[in-house]
């Protein structure tokens, strides 16, 4: 279990669900992991789980949509462990939005775009200089199949489609500095965030006609993230990895 041995990683949204799964597997594969999240108690809990397995992690309270927080997150990482060479931009909010765009509030639009999309711009902006000094790195973004196919949620789909485009720009713009950028598009994954959404869901939002008739697990996404963060994917950049149980082909 040393596919990320001696690497230093930041995982945003690591207090819950997919982010917790990624942070735990990164640490089990030998990385020193900074868990960044707005949720302090659950973020500390992720770190306790990781340490209980004998692996290394630390928590820093971070709102990825606020530049000052993100700058502090990167400084914390450098102080705690050294320069990061892995950034996993996973933090995000899932939204259920009205059928008609005229009913979508500006507040919801701004919140979803600021966390899901601007957050990745900010985390990349402040982490990339450290990666360059470290000699390179890997950015692994978490989008969604909602960024690839029709989705009833305007802001969410726009944010996730934006992440896919931003990832390609990162791959292009940072490639000269030995930094790769790739994006994972999960389908339906069993997480606390997904459970919250399901409680409010209507039929029109059930798009699943899956080949594999079950939800995925955070570990399914974590395995993909380890591959894209590790040197095993050294010839892979600007790629979109769909991990959805076959729902796009259903
Ligand atoms: N679960 C799914 O079915 C699914 C499918 C496709 C994509 N995704 C994406 O995967 C990612 C993780 O989703 P999840 O299902 O684990 O959700 P989750 O709600 O269980 O976890 C999300 C985490 O992000 C954190 N977060 C929210 N806003 C933040 C902010 N401003 N700054 C820092 N952290 C913040 C939350 O506190 C939480 O810990 C999201 O980007 C989501 O859009 C999830």
State the CATH superfamily name: NAD(P)-binding Rossmann-like Domain
CATH structural architecture:
3-Layer(aba) Sandwich
Radius of gyration: 17 Å
State the assembly state of the protein chains: single chain
Give a brief description.
The protein has about 250 residues and is of the alpha/beta class. It has seven helices and seven strands. It has a single domain, classed as NAD(P)-binding Rossmann-like Domain (Rossmann fold, 3-Layer(aba) Sandwich), CATH 3.40.50.
Describe this structure in words.
The chain has 250 residues and is of the alpha/beta class. The chain has one domain: Rossmann fold, CATH 3.40.50.720. It is built from 7 helices and 7 strands. It has helices at residues 17-28, 40-52, 67-80, 106-134, 154-174, 192-199, 218-229; strands at residues 8-12, 32-37, 56-61, 86-89, 137-142, 179-186, 240-243. A 7-stranded parallel sheet has the order 3-2-1-4-5-6-7, sandwiched between helices. Strand 4, helix 4 (106-134) and strand 5 form a beta-alpha-beta unit. Helix 1 (17-28) packs parallel to helix 2 (40-52), helix 1 crosses helix 7 and helix 4 (106-134) runs parallel beside helix 5. The longest helix is centred in the middle third of the chain and has 29 residues, at 106-134. The radius of gyration is 17 Å and the shape is globular. The mean pLDDT is 95. Nicotinamide-adenine-dinucleotide binds at residues 12-13, 15-19, 37-39, 62-65, 90-94, 115, 142, 144, 186, 188-189, 191-194.
